[in-house]
Design brief:
The protein is mainly α. 97% of the residues lie in helices and 0% in strands. It has 1 helix and no strands. The protein is rod-shaped.
């Protein structure tokens, strides 16, 4: 085999390797873009979760306040019932 043929073979091997590397590079770029999109989606979900947690805490505070107010009103009603019963007796 002549030196020229050996060089041509090497060049053909490099071309094949180059095409394979280009395909791998393209695939890796696609995966990287997908990973970037996933990271952004996770960040948005994290922010949404923090907002929902804050809303939940606010609703729990409102519920506690309303329960306390209800207990207070129940006590007032019981007091009025007792006074009415005392007046009727």
């Amino acid at each position: 085999m002549s030196a020229l043929q050996k060089l041509q073979e090497k060049i053909e091997q490099w071309k094949v390797s180059h095409e394979a590397l280009k395909a791998q590079n393209s695939e890796l770029k696609s995966q990287l873009e997908g990973a970037s999109g996933i990271a952004e989606a996770q960040e948005l979900l994290k922010i949404e979760l923090e907002n929902k947690t804050s809303q939940c805490a606010s609703l729990e505070e409102n519920l506690s306040s309303l329960q306390a107010e209800l207990a207070e009103k129940d006590a007032e009603i019981e007091k009025i019932i007792t006074q009415v019963e005392a007046l009727l007796a």
